[in-house]
Specification:
By secondary structure, the protein is mostly beta strands. The protein has no helices and seven strands. The chain is globular.
C-alpha cells in the first residue's frame, strides 16, 4: 500500500502511513502522522523515485536555486526514519525553470 509524505508550513516532512486494511478502508485517518524530516521549506518540488536501485523510494528535491538534491531512503539503516540519516547529495542543477519533472 502506498504511504503519503507531506511538507507542512514549518518545513517538517510528515509520513502518513496507509492503514487501509486496519482502518476499514480509510487509509490515512487511523493514526497521527510521523515526522521523518525537517528543513524542507526551501524546496520547490519533491519527486519520489528509486534512484539508488535498492527497492526503496528515494526523494529528489529541487530547491529555490534550481539544485536537484537526492535524499536516499535509509529506512532499514536509520530505524524507520527514511530521509533523516544522511546529508542530501546534489545530483543536478539548472532545474529552476522546469515546471514538471516526471520519473
Amino acid at each position: 500500500f502506498t504511504d503519503l509524505l507531506a511538507v507542512d508550513a514549518a518545513g517538517k516532512m510528515l509520513l502518513y502511513s496507509n492503514n487501509f486494511v486496519r482502518d476499514d478502508g480509510q487509509p490515512y485517518t487511523g493514526s497521527a502522522p510521523r515526522e521523518v524530516g525537517h528543513g524542507w521549506s526551501s524546496t520547490t518540488r519533491i519527486i519520489p523515485a528509486d534512484v539508488t536501485g535498492d527497492g526503496f523510494t528515494d526523494l529528489l528535491a529541487v530547491d529555490a536555486a534550481g539544485k536537484m538534491l537526492l535524499y536516499s531512503n535509509n529506512f532499514v539503516r536509520d530505524d524507520g526514519q527514511p530521509y533523516t540519516g544522511s546529508t542530501p547529495r546534489e545530483v543536478g542543477h539548472g532545474w529552476a525553470g522546469s515546471t514538471r519533472i516526471l520519473t
